[in-house]
Amino acid sequence: MVLVVLGAVAQAGGPWLIGRAIDLYILEGDAAGLARTMMFLLAVYALGTVASRGQVYGVGAVAQRLLASLRERIFDRLQHLPLRFFDRRPVGDLMSRVTNDVDTLNQLFSQGLTQLLGSIFSLVGILVAMLVLQWNLALACFAVIPIMLLTTAFFARRARQAFRLTRETVGDVSAGLQEDIVGVREAQAFNRTERNIARFRERNAANRDANVQAVAITSAFSPAIDVLSTLATALVIGYGGYLVFAGSISVGVLTAFLIYVQQFFRPVQLASQFYTQAQAALAGAERIYNILDEEPEPPDPPEARKVGRIEGRVAFERVTFAYAPGRPVLRDVDFRIEPGQTVALVGPTGAGKTTIASLIPRFYDATEGTVSIDGRDVRDYARKELRENIGIVLQEPFLFSGTIADNIGYGRLDASREEVESAARTVDAHGFISGLPDGYDTTLGEGGGSLSQGQRQLLSFARAVLTDPRILILDEATSNIDTRTEKVIQEALARLLKGRTSVVIAHRLSTIRSADLILAVRDGRVVERGTHEELLGLGGLYADLYRRQFREPVGREVVD
């Protein structure tokens, strides 16, 4: 602020010195006095230059720290938002908010804010200097200010709407781009590339048109200010010339006024540029704060139980759950798993099997009823410690950019290399890892691109093994693995599941024959429960699934 004030004083003092040089030294022929004034003027402008650079650097440094903090806040909030938030929003649009929308604020703070601060103080200094020099001439110049305010208000309303549309359309472009790049294999397989290109062109054209519309509005603002500046200059020349003829002011004062008029509208023009940037930034800020204003996962209760080492007794008591209000996907689900038991969930696609498993680690909370572990509602546990006791292997494993060792140790940052290798040996992944050029230090791209589906799944198993969970959830974890690898995995899982509570979701019924309890799920309800032999004997849903999968009789006529 000190530098901003110094810059404003230097800008306001320059024309006054020029006017003084004309009246006292040029018209009087005093070369020595003119030289002294010019040296002083040089010093004033040098001070203004240094102050201007200092304020740009100071504001820019503060702005960059602010923006870095804002990105951290956004990422922190995204990491703590409930999964239902991501269920309804495209990833590309969220990425656009963190990158493109924050970048609009970057332009505002690193450039526009400095200009605005300097402009405001320069404008104040100029107004004061003009009133001190000749108040009536100053008032004549100020006559254009109401017109300027009306002009600004006129463009303001239109610009805000236009820039809001630009942020929305660039979000659409980013979302579509992310989806089409991730799904490029499917696009080529189903000959969708041309249609995807056409759809991208439509989104890109919409963003282009929105930006052109915004530019059309803002580009008309600066010329309007130029017209007002020319009008004010004409007023000063006309009225000021009259005052010079009347002997009320000197030529030097009139010259100083002409310079002040130019300087008066320069801050206004800079402020108009700031306004343009501000409209884009405010539109981006709206999208950013839509994320920051989202409610994160409910905090753990103050008396949240420190889990420690759980036994692994899981119970569902009349659990109902809905992703959207009024549309339950689970209804009155009721079952119990004793420590060390393996429970399998089977049923048609969309029956609610994955939803049941997702309630155990509190990815979602039950709408009605209770999910409990060791006799205590999971909502009474601290999430972090609860999830430290639960291992999850999904059908589509996600591998992060980094080494193979980093991916296996993702859930245990303190794991040693020996522990990482031991986990890989447990699931028979050590062999193929050792065969890679850099072994465990082999760097993978996002998703583990160069590895086969089975190899990626083995790494996800090793990741779960390393955390040594008391409860293990396998969601179609072997569906993408070949028969030979599945046999190896089954042998490894027999060792892994021993003494652990496990919930296995499977369409491949051969993998869950030995489960202690099988729950057949349909339309969000548990319709059958029992062992493999018991359910075959019932001749119901499970028997029908088994018959369809293996094309063999189950001992009697199957009734769906």
TrEMBL record:
Keywords: ATP-binding, Cell membrane, Membrane, Nucleotide-binding, Transmembrane, Transmembrane helix, Transport. The chain crosses the membrane at residues 113-131, 137-156, 242-261. GO terms for molecular function: ABC-type oligopeptide transporter activity; ATP binding; ATP hydrolysis activity. One of its GO terms (cellular component) is plasma membrane. It is a multi-pass membrane protein. Residues 1-280 form the ABC transmembrane type-1 domain. It is found in: Cell membrane. PROSITE patterns: ABC_TM1F, ABC_TRANSPORTER_1, ABC_TRANSPORTER_2. Residues 314-548 form the ABC transporter domain. SUPFAM superfamilies: ABC transporter transmembrane region (SSF90123), P-loop containing nucleoside triphosphate hydrolases (SSF52540). Belongs to the ABC transporter superfamily. Lipid exporter (TC 3.A.1.106) family. ABC transporter involved in fatty acid import. Transmembrane domains (TMD) form a pore in the membrane and the ATP-binding domain (NBD) is responsible for energy generation. This is Fatty acid ABC transporter ATP-binding/permease protein. It comes from uncultured Rubrobacteraceae bacterium.
